[in-house]
Design goal:
With 164 residues, this protein is of the alpha+beta class. Helix content is 35%, strand content 24%. It is rod-shaped and about 110 Å long. The N and C termini lie far apart (112 Å).
């Protein structure tokens, strides 16, 4: 009977030593791993700071590109208010939407404003009423635009334009 007790103790001691060795190996690996790598997935402050620096640099670059595109004709619609009697003369490629008020078309040297919302492919010439909420395209930089008369107007404009 005493022999069985000794065998049990040896078995438990061997299991304890195996578990201790395996635990020591894992601890040694964790201590030797470089922070921020696959071996040590917890991010260090320097790692997070370097990634934030990369992100900030990319964001500033994209912001500069957007500003450049806007200055070259715009990529977003801008709200423009015209007072009674004012004219908006658009550059080539500009887009205009009359949101409120009233305005009349001004044709350029080579044609009028293309109303792309209408199914009939209407071209608005000088004196034609501008319909509200219709997308108008300006194909050339030849003096095309619109003029308000008795009341002002609010427009959405994408692209270059001048107000006079």
């Amino acid at each position: 009977m005493k022999l069985q007790g000794v065998a049990k103790n040896k078995y438990f001691i061997i299991c304890f030593l195996v578990i201790l060795c395996l635990g020591s190996i894992h601890i040694a690996r964790a201590i030797s791993a470089e922070p921020g790598t696959e071996g040590d997935p917890l991010a260090s402050k320097s790692y997070v700071d370097s990634k934030m620096s990369e992100f900030t640099s990319l964001a500033n670059s994209l912001k500069q590109q957007v500003q450049t595109m806007q200055s070259q004709g715009g990529i977003i619609f801008t709200v423009v208010e015209l007072k009674p009697g004012q004219e908006l003369i658009a550059g080539a490629g500009a887009e205009i939407v009359l949101r409120s008020g009233s305005a009349k078309a001004i044709q350029g040297t080579y044609g009028g404003l293309a109303d792309v919302t209408s199914d009939a492919g209407i071209e608005l010439m000088t004196g034609d009423n501008i319909p509200k909420n219709h997308l108008l395209l300006v194909s050339r930089d030849d003096g095309r635009g619109l003029r308000t008369e008795n009341e002002g107007a609010f427009l959405l404009v994408k692209g270059s334009y001048t107000i006079r």
